[in-house]
Design goal:
The complex is a heterodimer.
Chain A lengths: L6 E10 L2 E11 L4 E5 L6 H8 L5 E7 L2 E2 L5 H7 E4 L11 H6 L14 H13 L15 H14 L4 E5 L7 H16 L3 E5 L3 H7 L2 E6 L2 E6 L1 H4 L2 H8 L3 E5 L6 E5 L12 E6 L6 H8 L3 E5 L1 E3 L3 H8 L5 E3 L7 H13 L2 E5 L8 H7 L7 E4 L15 H11 L3 E3 L2 H15 L26
Chain B lengths: L3 H20 L1 E2 L2 E2 L8 H33 L12 H16 L4 H20 L7 H25 L4 H9 L7 H20 L1 H7 L3 H6 L4 H23 L5 H13 L3 H26 L5 H22 L2
Helix pairs in contact in B: 1-12, 2-7, 2-10, 2-11, 2-12, 3-4, 3-5, 3-10, 4-5, 4-10, 5-6, 7-10, 7-12, 8-12, 11-12, 12-13
Classes of the chains: A alpha/beta, B mainly alpha.
Chain lengths: ~450, ~325
C-alpha cells in the first residue's frame, strides 16, 4: 500500500441493506489522473462513486489519503472530496451564487460571514464553467445543462483534492461537453484526482487517462482506454456490436456502433456479391445485411472503409494490401466468386489503374445478373481515373443489359424481383429501373 | 442580498407598530376604552399579554415551518398540515386530563416529536421526498391524533369549546406567563435553528448534497426535529392548533428576501408574529372572538391550494 493513492479500495462490498450491489471491488486512484468508470446500465457505477463519498455504506478497505474513509468527520470529508451529482432537486429559489457559496460552508466558521475570498473563489469557479453570467439567476430558472455546470462549479469551489462526478456531461450539448471535460483534464493535470462515471464511451476514451469497467457489480477490467475498449469486450459486457477505430485527431480509441439487424432465419434466397471500393459500398452492405441474401464482397484493400464495413458485418471479401495492384490470386478468387453469384451489385466507385481489372472482370459475366448502383447526380465519368477506360467499362455493362438504379430500394427491387422467381431477366413490374441509362444524365426519374 | 437589511428593519418596525395598534384595538373600538372603570387595566392586563402571546406564538410557528420546509425539502411543509400540531395537542390534552395540567408543554413536546418522527420515518428518509407521500402521511397523522384528542376531551367531560381550542386554536386564556413561555422557547429553539441556518440551506437541496458539502447531516436533522417540535409544542400549549402560519409566513419571507435560512429564520419571527397578531385582533375585535384558527385558515387554505396549483403549472 502506498500513501500516494488518493482513494484505495480493497475487497470492497457495497450495498443498500440486504442487497449487495458491488462485490469484491479492488482499485486505486492516484493524484493527477482523470479516471472514468464505465459499464452498462445498472452495473453499479454510480453506487461505486457514492460508496467512495460514503453516502452508501460499504464493507472492506476503503481509504482516502491513506486513512479509512469511515474515520473522517463530515467536515474533513467535505474538505477532501467533492461530489457532482447528475442532477439535484431545486425546491427553493436560491441564486446560482448562493448555491455555489455552499461549497465554502465547510471552511467557514458557523457564525462568521463568508469572506471576500470565498466570493472570489466562487466567481472563479463560475467563470471556469462558463456560468458567471448566471450568478444572480434563480436556480429554478436554469436549463438542465446550466444547472449541471453550476453543480460542477460548486464542486470546483469546494477545493478538494478529489472530485467525483456522476455523468457530468449527461445534460450538456457538444460544445459544453468538450469544455467541461477539458476543464476536468486540466484539474487532473494540476494534481487533483478526478473520477467520473460516464455513459458515453467515446467521451470517456477521449478524455480519461484510465478507465474502470464495471459490470454486474464487479470490476471487469481497467487500464488505458485502448486496453479497456475492445470490440470483443464491448460485445461481452454491453451485448453491443461495435467497431473500434482511431480518433482521427487524437489517436485515441474510438467506438462506432454497428446496427447489424439480425439475419432473418431460414436459407438465403440468393448469393449476392457487392462490388465496391473507396467506401462506396459500406452503407449498401449495411443496407443489405439484414435481408435474406448470402452476401459477399469483392476485392477490397484493408484500409478501405468498405473492408472495415464488410469485416464488421461479417461479410466475406477478398482482402488485399493497400496501395498495390490486385494480385493475380485475388483476381482469380474474385472470378470464382462472381461465377458463383446469382446476382452482382456493382456500386459505382472510383476506378484507377489498380482496380480496373475488377471492372473488366465484370464484363465477362451475364449482364442481366448485374445491377449498377449509380447515386443520383453522378455520372460514370466522375468515377473514371484511367482516362475513359473505366467510364467505357461502366457504360458497356449498362449497354449490355445491366440494370442501373440510383437508390438502394431500386437495388433491392431488382434482387427481390429475381428472388421471386422471374429468373432475373425482367425486373419487377413497376419498378423504375432504367435500362441503358445515357451517360452524364442523372437518373432523376429513379428517385422515389 | 443588499435589500436584506432594509427589509428586516422594515419588518421590525412593522412588528412594533402592529403590536401597539392591535393592543389599542378591541371590540369597543380603537384606543384605550374610556367608558367604565379600568380601561387601562384591560389594555395592559388583558390585551397586551394576549397580543404578545400571539406575536411569539406566531414567531414560533413560522420558524418551525421554515425549518421543516428545509428538512423536508418542500415548501408545503407546515406543523399543522404535517400533524405536528395535533401531536402536540394530544400530548397537552393527555397532560391536562391525566395529570391535571402539570407539565403541559413537556408533554406537548413529546407528542409533537412523536408525530414528527412518524412523518419523517415514512416520508422523509431516502432520496427524493414525494410531496404526495409527505402530505398524505401528515394528513393521516393529523386526523388520527386529532381524533384521539377529541375522544379524550369528550370522555373527560370537557366542553365542546375545549375541542375547538385544540382543533382551531385561540388566545382566550393567554396570560403574561404564556407570552413569556413562548418568548423563551422562541429564543432558545430559534437560536439553535439560526445556528444551523447554512446547513439548512445545503440540506434543503438534499441530504446527500449536504453530506457532500461537509455537513453533519445527522446533527442538523436532530436539531431541526428537536427545535421545531419544541416551537410547535410551545405554540400548542398556549394557543391550541393554529394552522397555516408556518406555511404562509416562510413563503412570504422567501419572496421578499430569498431562501437563505440565515435570513429567513429571523425574518420569520417578525413576519409570523405580525401575521398572528393581526389575525387574532381581527377575530377578537371584529368577529366576536371566534377561534383565531378560523382566520388563519381563511388566509392559509386558499394559499395552500394556490401552492398546489403553482406546482402543477411549474415547468
Amino acid at each position: 500500500m502506498t500513501v500516494r493513492d488518493r482513494i484505495r479500495a480493497e475487497n470492497l462490498h457495497v450495498g443498500y441493506g440486504e442487497q449487495e450491489i458491488l462485490k469484491a471491488i479492488s482499485c486505486s486512484f492516484v493524484p493527477g489522473t482523470f479516471s472514468g468508470i464505465i459499464g452498462p446500465n445498472g452495473s453499479g457505477k454510480t453506487t461505486l462513486l457514492r460508496a467512495f463519498s460514503r453516502v452508501v455504506p460499504s464493507a472492506g478497505v476503503l481509504t482516502l489519503e491513506g486513512r479509512d474513509v469511515r474515520d473522517y468527520t463530515p467536515s474533513e470529508l467535505g474538505q477532501t472530496l467533492g461530489f457532482v451529482p447528475q442532477d439535484e432537486e431545486r425546491p427553493f429559489s436560491y441564486t446560482v451564487m448562493q448555491v455555489v457559496l455552499m461549497s465554502r460552508y465547510v471552511r467557514a466558521s458557523r457564525f462568521a460571514s463568508l469572506s471576500p475570498g470565498d466570493y472570489a473563489r466562487c466567481r472563479g469557479a463560475l467563470e471556469e464553467t462558463g456560468t458567471a453570467h448566471l450568478a444572480d439567476r434563480s436556480i429554478r430558472t436554469l436549463s438542465g445543462g446550466e444547472w449541471q455546470r453550476v453543480l460542477i462549479a460548486r464542486a470546483l469551489a469546494q477545493d478538494t483534492p478529489v472530485i467525483l462526478l456522476d455523468e457530468p456531461t449527461s445534460h450538456l450539448d457538444l460544445a459544453h461537453q468538450a469544455e467541461v471535460l477539458s476543464l476536468l483534464r486540466r484539474l487532473a493535470g494540476a494534481g487533483r484526482t478526478v473520477i467520473g462515471v460516464f455513459h458515453d464511451l467515446n467521451l470517456a476514451a477521449l478524455y480519461c487517462d484510465r478507465l474502470l469497467m464495471v459490470s454486474g457489480g464487479r470490476i471487469v477490467t481497467h487500464g488505458t482506454p485502448g486496453q479497456v475498449l475492445t470490440a470483443q469486450r464491448i460485445r461481452q459486457v454491453y451485448g453491443a456490436e461495435v467497431v473500434t477505430s482511431c480518433h482521427p485527431a487524437t489517436g485515441r480509441v474510438f467506438l462506432l456502433p454497428v446496427h447489424a439487424a439480425a439475419r432473418p432465419p431460414g436459407a438465403a434466397r440468393l448469393n449476392v456479391t457487392v462490388i465496391s471500393g473507396g467506401g462506396s459500398g459500406a452503407s449498401l452492405l449495411h443496407f443489405l445485411v439484414g435481408k435474406s441474401f448470402a452476401l459477399s464482397a469483392g476485392v477490397l484493400a484493408t484500409t478501405d472503409t468498405d473492408y472495415q464495413a464488410a469485416t464488421a458485418l461479417e461479410i466475406p471479401c477478398i482482402p488485399i494490401p493497400p496501395f498495390s495492384h490486385i494480385p493475380a490470386a485475388a483476381l482469380e478468387e474474385l472470378e470464382g466468386v462472381l461465377a458463383g453469384a446469382d446476382r452482382v451489385v456493382l456500386s459505382a466507385h472510383p476506378v484507377g489503374p489498380g482496380n480496373l481489372p475488377v471492372l473488366l472482370a465484370l464484363a465477362e459475366i451475364d449482364p442481366s445478373r448485374v445491377v449498377v448502383h449509380l447515386p443520383g447526380g453522378r455520372d460514370f465519368g466522375s468515377y473514371d481515373f484511367v482516362r475513359g477506360t473505366a467510364e467505357a467499362a461502366y457504360r458497356g455493362l449498362v449497354d449490355a443489359g445491366a440494370r442501373c438504379t440510383a437508390t438502394y430500394a431500386g437495388v433491392l427491387a431488382f434482387l427481390d424481383a429475381d428472388a421471386a422467381g422471374s429468373g432475373g431477366r425482367e425486373p419487377g413490374a413497376g419498378v423504375p429501373i432504367i435500362p441503358g441509362l445515357p451517360a452524364g444524365l442523372p437518373p432523376n426519374a429513379d428517385r422515389w | 442580498m443588499t435589500r436584506t437589511v432594509p427589509v428586516v428593519l422594515g419588518l421590525g418596525i412593522a412588528a412594533v407598530i402592529t403590536v401597539v395598534l392591535c393592543t389599542l384595538t378591541g371590540p369597543a373600538g380603537f384606543g384605550i376604552p374610556s367608558t367604565g372603570p379600568g380601561g387601562a387595566d384591560i389594555v395592559g392586563g388583558i390585551r397586551l399579554p394576549r397580543v404578545l402571546a400571539a406575536f411569539f406564538v406566531g414567531g414560533c410557528l413560522a420558524v418551525a415551518g421554515a425549518a421543516m420546509q428545509a428538512l423536508f425539502r418542500n415548501p408545503m411543509a407546515d406543523p399543522y398540515i404535517l400533524g405536528t400540531s395535533s401531536g402536540g395537542a394530544l400530548g397537552a390534552a393527555l397532560a391536562i386530563v391525566f395529570l391535571g395540567g402539570l407539565y403541559v408543554p413537556v408533554f406537548a413536546w413529546l407528542g409533537a416529536f412523536v408525530a414528527m418522527l412518524i412523518v419523517w420515518s415514512i416520508a422523509g428518509q431516502k432520496g427524493v421526498i414525494s410531496v404526495e407521500t409527505l402530505l398524505l402521511t401528515g394528513i393521516a397523522v393529523s386526523f388520527f391524533f386529532s381524533a384521539v384528542v377529541s375522544f379524550l376531551v369528550a370522555i373527560a367531560g370537557q366542553s365542546v369549546h375545549q375541542i375547538i381550542f385544540w382543533m382551531m386554536g385561540g388566545f382566550w386564556n393567554a396570560s403574561p406567563g404564556d407570552a413569556l413561555l413562548a418568548a423563551v422557547i422562541l429564543v432558545l429553539a430559534g437560536s439553535a435553528l439560526f445556528a444551523v441556518g447554512r446547513d439548512l440551506n445545503a440540506l434543503s437541496l438534499g441530504e446527500e448534497t449536504a453530506a457532500h458539502l461537509g455537513i453533519d447531516t445527522a446533527r442538523v436533522r436532530w436539531t431541526v426535529l428537536g427545535s421545531s417540535t419544541l416551537l410547535v409544542a410551545g405554540a400548542v400549549s398556549i394557543a391550541g392548533s393554529v394552522g397555516f402560519v408556518g406555511l404562509v409566513t416562510p413563503h412570504i419571507v422567501r419572496m421578499l428576501l430569498g431562501p437563505d435560512n440565515r435570513v429567513v429564520i429571523p425574518a420569520c419571527v417578525l413576519a409570523g408574529g405580525i401575521l398572528l397578531v393581526v389575525s387574532d385582533t381581527l377575530a377578537r375585535a371584529f368577529f366576536s372572538d371566534i377561534s383565531v384558527g378560523i382566520i388563519t385558515a381563511f388566509i392559509g387554505a386558499p394559499f395552500f391550494v394556490w401552492l398546489i396549483y403553482q406546482r402543477g403549472h411549474a415547468a
